[in-house]
Amino acid sequence: MLVAAAAKGGVAAFETLYRRHAGRVHGVIVRLVGGRGARADDLTQEAFVRAWQALPEFRYEAAFSTWLHRLAVNTALMELRRRRSRPQDDGDDDAFELLGATDSAGHTTALSMDLERAVASLPPRARAVLVLYDVEGWKHEEIATELGMAVGSSKAQLHRARSLLRERLGAHA
Description:
Blueprint: H1 2-7, H2 11-33, H3 37-54, H4 64-85, H5 111-121, H6 124-135, H7 140-147, H8 151-169
Helix pairs in contact: 2-3, 2-4, 2-6, 3-4, 5-8, 6-8, 7-8
């Protein structure tokens, strides 16, 4: 009922849908773009703007959450493509140096934070394949199609990402 009301322009219904799904949408975008907080926030908003614009054409062939999640993934993947086409330093290469560092309170960073940072430090394509395959449950064929690579390249990127994670997490892996 909320989706139908939002599709007819119901702002309150869309706000409710936003509150219900914003966390998951933001989470997948953060993982795909490498933990860039401000950019992930912008992309989350962009995904919801795109959802608002496309909602009148929503055909109910899948659950709204599935449709929205796919739209969010596509928004993040478009950002990765834009980044790849621009020659610039991603800064990702140095991110893993903070793993296991002592925080300001004198405690060693928790493993979950280490894992999050390690994933964020992966090269963008390897990170995208890892997140889509291991976190989102996509098949290599879907990943290859979406990222414009061969299925074998998707598998190789996944292997590369997992190897880099093991290396970066060291004893925790």
